[in-house]
Amino acid sequence: MSIPVVTAVTGAPWESALVAGLEAAPNGLTLVRRCIDLPDLLAVAASGLARAVLLSAEQRRLDRELLDRLAASGVAVVVLHAQGDDAAVARVERLGLRHTCSADAPLDVLADTVAGAVSDLLAAPVGVTQSRTAAPAPAYDRADPPPHPGGPERVPGRLVAVWGPAGSPGRTSLAVGIAAELAHRRVPTVLGDVDVYGGTVASMLGLLDEAPGLAAAVRLSNNANLDLRALAGLAPEAAAGLRVLTGISRADRWPELRPAALEHVWALCRELAAVTVLDCAFCLEQDEELSFDTAAPRRNGATLLTLERADTVIAVGAADPIGVARLVRGLEALREVLPAVSPRVVLNRVRPGPVGPRPHQELAAALERYAGVRDVAFVPDDRAAFDVALRTGRTLAEAAPGSAARQALERLAAELVGRPAPRRRRRVLARAGR
Ligand SMILES: Nc1ncnc2c1ncn2[C@@H]1O[C@H](COP(=O)(O)OP(=O)(O)OP(=O)(O)O)[C@@H](O)[C@H]1O
Ligand SMILES: [Mg+2]
Predict the structure, then answer these.
(1) How far is C-alpha 151 from the geometric centre of its chain's CA atoms?
(2) How many angstroms does the Cα of residue 309 sit away from the middle of ligand 1?
(3) How much is the pTM?
């Protein structure tokens, strides 16, 4: 069966030869339209007229976002380049595209390439986030022990998403705390702020919140200009072994965190560090259900993509009746949107006040009854420790090392990497009888 294709090669010197060739000897391709610009191409793609597009490598707006939108419309992409233009091929490959063809290749070669692109697109899994074109994430078995990059057989690092419902249950505090504890254990760690409603990781750590950080990484990735070195430059070390990718300080900057490019940034983070801890926003609503324009940017796309790609999702709830009710509803929503995700549930700010004299038992029983959660971790309410940390822009490990909250974070970090904490000096001193 002939594959309906469109071209988007306006201005390329080989355009007329290509079109004349396709019209004279289609070789299994039917040229249904010559698109004059990208809006034209996107409209045709959305109409379902074409199965594939022949795109010029010289197209200046050939970026991850465009590829993502074409993939979402079910249109495969083949990039045509001038013969011997290795730079164009390399750029296209950095965008995660495998189907390229020299513009002067025989038409049967082009037809084979198009057929390959179409069957790859059909075989690609489609997640809740529509991205099908970003560089593939390295294979990583969730059950594997945590990797340690740097050796000759580098194992991709792990992604840990810290999420929780509305009501400020302590997502950022836990993400920062867990990342700091991992670094303290000498596990190379990246802490990323992907809160699309306004990130606070930078201010919590006393960093400049106008630093380019994640938004810059996404921008570079969208244009195929992000590599490991550039990512490392955008994620400076805030403490030994702890790199920080700061987020968007203003909520209205959310369109800068484009899911298509974010996927590539996360894949690179897996190369940069053994563990990447990501502070996510609360909202899981799939905006396209609210609008008919499925290709419109989606505010929660970054959150959904991150939760979908994470190896571990930590779901944080506040340890009071309202916080638990919100967490129960949040877990339900998470199950609906991402049924494969099985989160590690953590209740934060545990104290007897709002739930009674035996808060751990009461809270565990409520979560089992209403959400079927059998295993809950607890972080105590420790206002004094967090106040010192906030006042000094430091982590609990630095500002309140002996605090109860810090010990709970240490346990969560240990769970993630399965390594005991480095021995505390206090214990050494105690053994020495001092
Ligand atoms: N275990 C704790 N004990 C005492 N205070 C805590 C604890 N955890 C977090 N807090 C405090 O609760 C407040 C909210 O925490 P945080 O900013 O981490 O929440 P969040 O869920 O990220 O909120 P947002 O919705 O703003 O992103 C902060 O003042 C923080 O210091
Ligand atoms: Mg937060």
Answers:
(1) 25
(2) 25
(3) 0.84
